[in-house]
Design a protein that fits this description.
By secondary structure, the protein is α/β, with parallel strands linked by helices. The chain has a single domain, classed as L-arginine/glycine Amidinotransferase, Chain A. The protein is built from seven helices and twelve strands. The strands form four sheets. The protein has a three-stranded mixed beta sheet, sandwiched between helices. Strands 4-5-6 form a three-stranded mixed beta sheet, sandwiched between helices. Strands 7-8-9 form a three-stranded mixed beta sheet, with no helix packed on it. The chain binds arginine. The site of arginine has 16 residues, from loops.
């Protein structure tokens, strides 16, 4: 995670970003700190990547890389405003413990890649349509040696996979069907017949931008309806307020780059 000390909305690279709307950086830092503390309280280890002036979106750490089994597929950002973040993430991965691959293709890390460890011997779900290039899906498959399932995103408000779908445990996911093309929806139905289905309001409250440890699902405080659905499915929702970071187009999951050593 990387604290939003330099957070700002200075440009528009997704429909949520309005540079004329004021941002309260102090409040953003407080909300972020509360997310970090909530994860630590639930016995998760959080490493902090130092923020950089001039990189106002760096708080969305999920976009910096994607790792599986100690292999890291680095990010290559779509927009120049964020491209310098990739090298800062790269520097975090100590070559003694990680095998890092510099990407050729445009991809935004965990923003568009998700890992389901218990399905098909470990399958990677990958979004495209707005940010990550579909050519990066093939590259990720070569680098990670895992099947990559390409899913087409169709709603510009849900421009990354991690705002449309989340992995809940080793074999199950939650998603909003309306964020995907017909064919991709059919793929998801086949792979995950027991998925928790979210509705449009859940998705637009950034409810799907959640991170789960298999038991607790940490999700946005506004996503109460999705919280209730997750609870009915046997998970414990832990709601976290991240209103300031919504102004940049992200929530809980965007702030976290999950490490899979
Ligand atoms: N303003 C950032 C962007 O548009 C938000 C990124 C949100 N991150 C995510 N993993 N969905 O790139």
């Amino acid at each position: 995670m990387s604290p939003p000390e330099h957070f700002a909305v200075e440009y528009t690279i997704n429909p949520w970003m309005d540079p004329t709307a004021p941002v309260d950086v102090e409040l953003a830092v407080k909300q972020w700190e509360n997310l970090r503390e909530t994860l630590v309280r639930h016995e998760h280890t959080v490493h902090v990547l130092p923020p950089h002036a001039g990189l106002p979106d760096m708080v969305y750490a999920a976009n910096g890389a994607f790792s599986v089994d100690g292999v890291v597929y680095g990010a290559r950002f779509r927009y120049p405003q964020r491209s310098a973040e990739a090298a800062l993430h790269r520097a975090f991965y100590d070559p003694g413990s990680w095998r890092f691959h510099d990407p050729v293709e445009i991809n935004e890390g965990e923003g568009d890649f998700a890992y389901v460890p218990g399905t098909g011997g470990g399958v990677v779900l990958a979004g495209f349509g707005f940010r990550t290039d579909p050519t990066a899906h093939a590259e990720a498959q070569e680098v990670l040696g895992r099947p990559v399932v390409s899913l087409r995103l169709t709603d510009p408000r849900l421009y990354h996979l991690d705002v449309a779908l989340a992995v809940l445990d080793d074999t199950n996911v939650t998603y909003y069907p309306g964020a995907f093309s017909d064919g991709s929806r059919r793929v998801l139905e086949r792979l995950f017949p027991d998925a928790v289905l979210a509705d449009e309001a859940d998705a637009l409250a950034f409810g799907l931008n959640l991170i789960s440890d298999g038991r607790h699902a940490f999700l946005n405080s506004e996503a109460t309806a999705l919280g209730a659905k997750l609870s009915a499915a046997g998970y414990t929702p832990v709601h976290v307020e991240l209103g300031e970071l919504k102004k940049g187009g992200g929530s809980v999951r965007c702030c976290i780059a999950e490490l899979r050593p």
